[in-house]
């Protein structure tokens, strides 16, 4: 049995019709690959369509205002991807005259483009024989060949890339890469795969050894940090409010938020009320203050769990630098704040 023949045959019969598969345009392939990092296809698809409509070419994206890019990205998370996307578009447009590098080695030099994304663009756009290695590929190969290497190790990617390269038909790298990723996404799924209806069910080592649910091996993640955010949603005599830009490095860089009081643990009304009096967000006297959500909203990021409370403050007079409710909706916010604004 030749592995790639079975795999490609399965792919041609079962593949999803995705817009970035109907093109070799490196701009569209780059966009899709950046968006699909840490993101499911179903979630990423509307964003891809919105971006290609708003920015048909890399020049359009390069010339766009960063806030517009972040606003369109709102809800996809990992916002550094969007900032890097914008910077790389500017580099390609202004320094490379809009022409993407045409090989894996040069693609790796682009900001925000790692080994996986460079391999995807190189193979899909330029048919370069370089393997892609993502979570799907780790899973398919570790199960089929019973590879117990811990995929959390830095050395694992090189080992699996070498194995994938060995299996790849060098005249069909694009379709092989698409096929193995799609097979992992649709057939060889993380939990309870349908091994009974698998084209490899008579040759998969993990199935024969009853190890499917044990592979791939991945060591435990780092401990998650808990943070406690108290957002102050101000409303003055004209129903204007205040927001601020997160300029510090870290989560949500360059997105907007309400004035924030971060605490060491979840705090009650009295604690937050006293803290508000001590902060200098505004000088207007407070008329009233109330909790918009008694129970914290837990917003889970890969390395942090944010416990978020929103507090509504009515103040006397008109605040300096206030914005209207209509203006508020034009700014890019983290999705948890965007959802709160839309609900209130």
TrEMBL record:
One of its GO terms (biological process) is base-excision repair. SMART domains: ENDO3c. Its EC number is 3.2.2.31. GO terms for molecular function: 4 iron, 4 sulfur cluster binding; 8-oxo-7,8-dihydroguanine DNA N-glycosylase activity; adenine/guanine mispair binding; metal ion binding; oxidized purine DNA binding; purine-specific mismatch base pair DNA N-glycosylase activity. Binds 1 [4Fe-4S] cluster. It catalyses: Hydrolyzes free adenine bases from 7,8-dihydro-8-oxoguanine:adenine mismatched double-stranded DNA, leaving an apurinic site. Residues 35-186 form the HhH-GPD domain. This is Adenine DNA glycosylase. Gene3D superfamilies: Helix-hairpin-Helix base-excision DNA repair enzymes (C-terminal), Hypothetical protein, domain 2, Nucleoside Triphosphate Pyrophosphohydrolase. SUPFAM superfamilies: DNA-glycosylase (SSF48150), Nudix (SSF55811). Keywords: 4Fe-4S, DNA damage, DNA repair, Glycosidase, Hydrolase, Iron, Iron-sulfur, Metal-binding. Belongs to the Nth/MutY family. Adenine glycosylase active on G-A mispairs. MutY also corrects error-prone DNA synthesis past GO lesions which are due to the oxidatively damaged form of guanine: 7,8-dihydro-8-oxoguanine (8-oxo-dGTP). It comes from Flavobacterium sufflavum. Its cofactor is [4Fe-4S] cluster.
